[in-house]
Specification:
The protein has 321 residues and is an alpha+beta fold. A hairpin with a 4-residue loop joins strand 11 and strand 12. It starts with 18 loop residues before the first helix and ends with a helix.
Length: 321
Amino acid sequence: MSKDPDRADPPGRAAGLDLESLRDYAAASHDLLRADELPGVGLSSRAPDRRAARLRSVRRGVYTLEPATSPEEQHLQSARAVQATRSDTTLSHVSAALVHGLPVDRRRLTLVHVTAPTRRGRRAGVHSHGARLSRTDVQVIDDLAVTAPTRTVLDCALSLPLFEAVSIVDSALNGELTTIGQLWRDLTRLGHRHGLGRARRALALSDAKCESPGETRVRILLGRAGFELESQVVIRDEFGGFVARVDFRLVGSSVVIEFDGRGKYSLNGDSHVALWNEKRRQDALHALGYEVVRIIWEDLQRPAGLVAKVKAAMARADRRG
């Protein structure tokens, strides 16, 4: 967090404690203040001064007037604090994935991940990965130095469990942040790495059409059970009119599969209208001879039950002819 030429001059001790001026000064650095900046704004790092200014510690030596609330926001605020005191670091792995808008399991947000030329190991909430990054491996996004999308995806594929890794690959491909060809080329250039086999498997299982981690998990679980799925299929009526776009169609069968993620019916603020529209959509699919399998997160915790659900739909479809 170097001096910003556009940043307002600090209010100063002589001016007394001016919270509005302090807030304006901190805003230029995303509401963060380093301990060495406090004397310039009329404060010290002693607890009474910090309390008077309503400062909260983000990590040792870095404070904020605006504590983050959600786990994702807290992680990004911590990441900014790390780079405020360690300018040689680049956010990487799940921390970079979060910056790029890729899906990250909240359980992974307890540690800020950085890559640096010489530092390795875990300390004070930071996991440092030792590596030298090329210029093309690094981007600056919203004043954060982060690994570029392709490098980020590969770091995650090398280090995360398979479901999480494939979700990140799918999301990056779906969002056109990288291409499967670029991922394979760069993975080859990385050479032998721990997790290489897992990363190769994650790339092999990827599907750019999948739009959520839940869809990714459905596809992998059913694929393991021997089902062949086609993603994001448009269903039309006998006149060629659009009826629906479904998450999956079971190849060789009139079974379609929909994943209902949390919050699906609250996006427009009117759950009753959304539910009614969904019922009409499902009725239209049934009228065309399709069996609809609706899957929720709880189904993904019981793979055997999920498989049974799909097989039951196949049996119903066969009986309908």
